[in-house]
Amino acid sequence: EVQLQQSGPELVKPGASVKISCKTSGYTFTEYTMHWVKQSHGKSLEWIGGINPNNGGTSYNQKFKGKATLTVDKSSSTAYMELRSLTSEDSAVYYCARGSLLGHWYFDVWGAGTTVTVSS
Amino acid sequence: DIQMTQSPASLSASVGETVTITCRASENIYSYLAWYQQKQGKSPQLLVYNAKTLAEGVPSRFSGSGSGTQFSLKINSLQPEDFGSYYCQHHYGTPLTFGAGTKLELK
């Protein structure tokens, strides 16, 4: 069974950074891209960006450049997203989601989400 | 960025009814359109991609149609498990963008 297991909820202070993880199983990690999607409370979905685990190549939504950094660890089949300089606007649920290697990305498998709360 | 406009924003229907949700793209996205279902407190689940291809395991009462800028998701004979929120997403290029969602509620 294909699974994306995300790390637990985070409570972080304004101005700090947080790194959340997405550990994959049930498929070959390097045969798909991994993407991150933000969902603010009660709102719609925003694509943050995606990464190709083969070469670390990334594609970011311009809105999140400078805010998010995507990385992978092929040895553990895990994807990571670091968010920096956090403000209350970054409080949201963040999902990892699997996409194809070929572009025209839609997401066939999603993680359960990681809730990030930014509060002093 | 391509804007995705969904309608209606909310919809009340009964079990057994047929409903249609529409999604309009601000420019031509050919057939690069996906639909997701999201239940309260859960992650989105892929229903349709390439405008009309059902994802694995999705019941045949769901169907997608459209091309260019106008798309729709039709659900025949609504079942209790179909209630929740639905989102469209273009997958033509980057940035990928989603519609604002349609909340399907039980009448």
Structure characterization notes:
The complex is a heterodimer of chains A (120) and B (107). In chain A, the strands form 2 sheets. In chain A, strands 2, 4, 5, 6, 9, 10 and 11 form a 7-stranded mixed sheet that branches. In chain A, strands 1-3-8-7 form a 4-stranded antiparallel sheet, with no helix packed on it. Chain A has 120 residues and is mainly β. Chain A contains no helices and 11 strands. In chain B, 34% of the residues are buried. Chain B has strands spanning 4-7, 10-13, 19-25, 33-38, 45-49, 53-54, 62-67, 70-75, 84-90, 102-106. Chain B is globular. By secondary structure, chain B is mainly β.
Could you give a quick summary of the protein structure above?
By secondary structure, chain A is mainly β. Chain A is built from no helices and 11 strands. In chain A, the strands form 2 sheets. In chain A, strands 2, 4, 5, 6, 9, 10 and 11 form a 7-stranded mixed beta sheet that branches. Chain A has a 4-stranded antiparallel beta sheet with strand order 1-3-8-7, with no helix packed on it.
How is the secondary structure organized here?
The complex is a heterodimer of chains A (about 120) and B (about 110).
Chain A: E1 3-6, E2 10-12, E3 18-25, E4 33-39, E5 45-51, E6 58-60, E7 68-73, E8 78-83, E9 92-99, E10 109-110, E11 114-118
Parallel strand pairs in A: 2-11
Antiparallel strand pairs in A: 1-3, 3-8, 4-5, 4-9, 5-6, 7-8, 9-10, 9-11
Chain B: E1 4-7, E2 10-13, E3 19-25, E4 33-38, E5 45-49, E6 53-54, E7 62-67, E8 70-75, E9 84-90, E10 102-106
Parallel strand pairs in B: 2-10
Antiparallel strand pairs in B: 1-3, 3-8, 4-5, 4-9, 5-6, 7-8, 9-10
